[in-house]
Write a structure and sequence with these properties.
Blueprint (H helix, E strand, L loop, with lengths): L2 H12 L1 H15 L4 H31 L2 H9 L3 H28 L1 H8 L6 H10 L2 H17 L4 H24 L4 H27 L6 H29 L2 H22 L5 H5 L4 H10 L4
InterPro entries: MurJ (IPR004268), Poly_Biosynth_Transport (IPR050833)
Protein name: Virulence factor MVIN family protein
GO cellular component, one term: plasma membrane
Length: 297
């Protein structure tokens, strides 16, 4: 019976796209948009925007989910100290990946979209990516907090939270679509708010069950500062390379390399991640050795 709540939670969590498609299609027809234009715009949203923001979400969640077994062992051993420590680490590792990905997709939205979809007019996609990249943070956080709640044996809670968030999401979507006439951006923003509602409700649930509040400085503040500096460096490198060699591909690749290096150094220098925490990540022992050789630890 423990499988059913997990499956139903996943269904409630992912059915929003189907509902959005139906509401958006009928709504735009009601507002006078032609069917072909509505289908084309939805195709950009569902086929490209969703694909791009789900890549870092998947990476962040796979990294964080690798720590869930240790959380389950702590729960089985009824060790509250270890449970709280694991929950904190899982959420932090998710944000360490999701926040810089959000910044990167924002500042390099145009270059990345034009690199991946070079044969198309990416005007709408670039705008969606710039305005909607925050979905990476909220979907990463909502998904990993779902896993945390399931890991501490509260299987029904993510399902309840997903249903509540879905209802609120539909309400917001209708207001934005019919009231403010925001078109496809009503779907983009209401989708972000759906994930935000999930984050809030899951956070309240975790606090209630564990009497625990997530540490803020190392989880959100320092990664955001490091990501902001990283974003500036990446954008500057891209502009410099693109002006010099006139190659979007080379500019994007070099900007990403510089971004990873700058962000990694800042994480260590700001003490957002210490040696023990880094070693606990997948492949972390190799990263520790590299950091020590570079005198970053």
């Amino acid at each position: 019976m423990t499988v059913l709540p997990i499956v139903m939670s996943s269904v409630a969590y992912n059915i929003s796209t189907v509902i959005d498609n139906s509401i958006y299609g009928k709504g735009m027809a009601f507002l006078g948009m032609g069917a072909s234009e509505a289908v084309s715009t939805w195709g950009v949203y569902a086929g490209k925007y969703h694909l791009l923001f789900n890549i870092p979400v998947a990476i962040a969640n796979s990294l964080a989910s690798s720590l869930i077994p240790s959380l389950s062992r702590a729960v089985a051993g009824k060790n509250r100290g270890q449970i709280v420590s694991r929950v904190s680490m899982v959420i932090r590792f998710s944000m360490v990946i999701a926040i810089p990905a959000t910044v990167g997709l924002t500042v390099l939205a145009g270059p990345v979209c034009n690199l991946l979809f070079s044969r198309y007019d990416n005007t709408n996609l670039i705008r969606m990516m710039m305005y909607g990249s925050l979905a990476v943070v909220f979907f990463s956080l909502s998904t990993v907090t779902n896993a945390v709640l399931q890991g501490i044996n509260h299987m029904q809670t993510p399902l309840k939270n997903a249903v509540i968030s879905l209802v609120l999401h539909i309400l917001v979507l209708c207001i934005m679509l019919f009231g403010f006439k925001m078109g496809i951006y009503s779907v983009v923003y209401s989708n972000i708010l759906f994930a935000l509602f999930m984050c809030i409700l899951n956070g309240i649930s975790i606090r209630r069950f564990l009497n625990y509040r997530q540490e803020m400085k190392k989880t959100f503040i320092l990664p955001t500062i490091a990501s902001g500096i990283m974003g500036g460096a990446a954008y500057g490198v891209y502009k410099l390379v693109h002006m010099t060699v006139k190659s979007n591909t080379i500019g994007v690749l070099l900007a990403i390399v510089v971004a990873v290096m700058v962000y990694g150094v800042l994480l260590l220098k700001l003490r957002c991640v210490d040696e023990t925490e880094l070693a606990g990540m997948p492949g972390g022992t190799k990263l520790v050795r590299i950091a020590q050789k570079c005198h970053l630890m």
